Amino acid sequence: MSATLAVRARWREGVTSLAGAALLAFGLAEIHVPLAGYVEGEGPDLAALPAGWLAVLTVLLVGYCLAVAGCTTYPRAAAVLAGACFAAQSFTPVLPEWPVVPLLALLAASFGCVALGGRAAFPVAATSYFVPLGIENTVAGDSDWVFILFVGLAVLGPGYAVRMRRAQAARLVALAAEREAAARADERLRVARELHDIVSHGVSVMVLQAAAAQAVLDSDAARARGSLDAVQDVGREVVTELRRLLVVLRGAEPAPEALPSLRRLEPLATGVRLAGGQVDVAVTGDLDAIPAAADVSGYRILQEALTNAARHAPGAAVRVSIEVAADALRLRVTDDGTGAARRSAGTGHGLTGIRERVELFGGTVTAGPRPQGGFEVRVELPFDAEASVGPLAPAGVTR
Questions:
Q1: Do 301 and 196 fall into the same domain?
Q2: Do residues 368 and 376 touch, judged by C-beta distance below 8 A?
Q3: How large is the average pLDDT for residues 51-66?
Q4: Are 243 and 373 members of one domain?
Q5: Residues 133 and 230 in one domain
Q6: What digits encode the pLDDT tens for the residues 164-201?
Q7: Are 247 and 293 in contact (CB under 8 A)?
C-alpha cells in the first residue's frame, strides 16, 4: 500500500512539473511573440512595452509556473506564490487577464492547496484566491464579483471534496495497518499457546518418567526400563507435534488425520498413568460430531489439564469427562491430589492458555480447588460457526 502511494505521489509531481513547463513555454510565447490584443483586441501592445516591463512579466510568469509545478509538493507555498504574482501583475501595464497563464495558475495552486495542503489549507487557498482577484478587480475598475465567487466555489469545493476523500483513504490505510498488527500479535499469541501446550505436556511427562526411572533404577530394572521407554515415546511425540506446527507455519496444510483430536486421547492418558497416576476417561455422545475447531481446542485443553494434574498432583487419580451435546462440547477434569504444590484457582500460563482458547469460542471455564480436596477444571465450548474457525487459524485448518 505504501509503495503504491509513493508511486502515485511521484506521478503527481511529474505531471505538475510538466504542466508548469508547458505554461512557461506558452507564457513566454505570449510575451515575446505577441499576437493580437489579448482581450477582444483591447489592451496594451506587448511588443511596444519597455524591456523592463517585459522582464517583470517574465519573472511573474516564472513565479506562476513554479507555483503550478510545486502545487502538489508545497501546496500552501504554491498558492501564496501564485496569489502574490497575480496581485503584483495587477499593478503592471498588463493586467492578469491574458488567456490561460495567470488565472489558470492561480486556480491550480488554490485547488492543490485545499486538496493537499494539510492544516489551515482552506483559509490559505481562499485568501490566495479572493484577495488577488479583489485587488485586480479594484485596479481594473470591474465589479464582476459573481463570476469570481462562482469560479472560486467551482475550484475550492472540488478541492475540499478531494481532501476529504484523501483523509478517508488515509484513515482506512491506518485502520488496515492496525488490524494487520493486531492479527500478527494474535497469531504470535496462538503460536506461543501451541508451543506451550506441546512442550509443556511432553517435558512434564518426560521429567516425571525420568524421576520414576531414577527412583527404581537399582531395585527394579524392568520398571526403570519401561519408564525410559516412555520418555522416548513422549519425546518422539513432542518432536512430531513440533514438526507438524512448523509445517503449518510454513504455509502447508496438514492432513486431517494428523491433527490433534479427542478421538486420540489415549496417549495423553497413558503419559499420566506411566507417571504413576490413574486416569479414567468417560465419553458421552459422538466424538465424530464435534466440529474440527472445537475438537482440536478440546484436545489442547485436556492436554493442559492433564499436564497440570501430572505436574502438581503426581500419583493422583484423575477423572476426565467428555460430553458431546447438540450445541456444545463440555469437558471436566478432576483429580484428588493434595499437597503443598497444589495450584491456586487460576494462576499460571496453563490455565491462562485454557481461558484464552475458551474465550475464542465464547465459552465458559471454571477452575479451582474442590471442597472435598483436589482440583477441578470445567469447560464448555459452544459449537458456534464463527468462533469455531478462529482457534484453527494458526494450525492451518478450516472447517
A1: yes
A2: yes
A3: 88
A4: yes
A5: no
A6: 888 888 888 788 888 877 777 776 777 777 677 667 66
A7: no
pLDDT at 81 over 90: yes
Confidence at 388, pLDDT banded by 50, 70, 90: very low
Residues 198, 113 share a domain = no
Unique residue bearing C-alpha cell 484428588: 336
Domain range for 20: 2-143
Instruction: For residues 245-273, give the mean pLDDT.
Output: 68
Average pLDDT score, the chain: 77
Please write down the HEC assignment for all residues of the chain.
CHHHHHHHHHHHHHHHHHHHHHHHHHHHHHHHCCCCCCECCECCCHHHCCHHHHHHHHHHHHHHHHHHHCCCCCHHHHHHHHHHHHHHHCCCCCCCCCCCHHHHHHHHHHHHHHHHCCCCHHHHHHHHHHHHHHHHHHHHCCCCHHHHHHHHHHHHHHHHHHHHHHHHHHHHHHHHHHHHHHHHHHHHHHHHHHHHHHHHHHHHHHHHHHHHHHHCCCCCHHHHHHHHHHHHHHHHHHHHHHHHHHHHHCCCCCCHHHCCCHHHCHHHHHHHHHCCCEEEEEEECCHHHCCHHHHHHHHHHHHHHHHHHHHHCCCCEEEEEEEECCCEEEEEEEECCCCCCCCCCCCCHHHHHHHHHHHHHCCEEEEEECCCCCEEEEEEEECCHHHHHHHHHHHCCCC
Percentage of the residues of the chain whose pLDDT score is greater than 90: 8
At 340 the pLDDT is 41
- pLDDT the model gives residue 83: 92
Rounded (5°) CA angle 341-343-344: 135
Q: Are 120 and 213 contained in the same domain?
A: no
The whole-angstrom separation of Cα 108 and Cα 64 is 10
The span from the CA of 70 to the CA of 172, in Å, is 27
- Given 143, 164, 199, which residue is the final one in a domain? 143
Considering the chain, what percentage of its residues have pLDDT values greater than 70?
Answer: 79
Q: Is 276 left (phi over 0), alpha (psi -120 to 50) or beta?
A: left
Mean pLDDT of 204-231: 78
